[in-house]
Design goal:
With 203 residues, the chain is α+β, with helices and mostly antiparallel strands. The protein is elongated, with a radius of gyration of 26 Å. Among the domains are: 47 residues, no CATH class; 83 residues. It has four helices and three strands. It has a three-stranded antiparallel beta sheet with strand order 1-3-2, covered by helices on one side.
């Protein structure tokens, strides 16, 4: 059994959310004891107490040890490894994680529905596009086939679903493709809709 000490609170940015205050180093919080977000050295983490860092104590700490961020650029890191990992995952067919809801739907992004609320499809199914005119939706299907010729070669007529959807004052067309006859290794991931004309049922 591992003995755990008192919990430590780590405050960080939440750039994917709109509205909440951003937390920065040396930023005070509107609480009774006026706590301050204090940058720490690694050897301070186990022994520090959150109550040690307040508006009253931070000036003395700063005068004693200086600016913990002074040498932040001395040992710059690199994103090369992360970018290489991202590229490898993309080539292996791993799609991007869902984006926050206030961002436009991204290419290759999976559905944003919560896993607990997602309906399990009987067969692998992806949506190709939505358009006010049927011919525009079918043109999007042809573009998808051009991008994925290997997968398109395995499709059967019944695998292409062309749905006429009812809007408030008119109908629009949705096209989906069942991938049950497409080998798993060549199944395309869900992409951004093409076309993606705004309809009453658009997410």
């Amino acid at each position: 059994m591992v003995e755990r000490g008192a919990p430590r609170s780590v405050r960080g940015l939440q750039p994917e959310r709109q509205g909440p205050n951003r937390c920065l180093s040396l930023l005070g919080a509107p609480q009774e004891h006026a706590p301050v977000s204090a940058p720490l050295a690694w050897d301070e983490v186990d022994s520090c107490e959150p109550g040690d860092f307040t508006m009253a104590t931070m000036p003395g700490r700063f005068a004693e040890i200086g600016d913990r961020h002074e040498n932040i650029d001395r040992d710059p890191g690199s994103l090369d490894g992360l970018l290489e990992l991202s590229t490898r995952h993309e080539h292996e067919g791993q799609g991007d994680a869902p984006w926050p809801p206030h961002y436009k739907k991204q290419r290759g992004e999976p559905a944003r529905v919560q896993p607990s609320k997602a309906r399990a499809a009987k067969h692998p199914l992806i949506e190709i596009g939505r358009a006010q005119r049927k011919e525009d939706a079918l043109a999007g299907l042809e573009r998808w086939k051009t991008r994925h010729p290997e997968a398109a070669a395995h499709l059967q007529p019944a695998d292409v679903l062309v749905d006429s959807m009812r809007g408030r004052s008119s109908t629009w067309t949705r096209i989906r493709v069942k991938l049950e006859h497409v080998p798993a290794k060549v199944r395309p991931a869900q992409e951004a809709l093409d076309p993606d004309e705004k309809t009453l049922s658009s997410s």
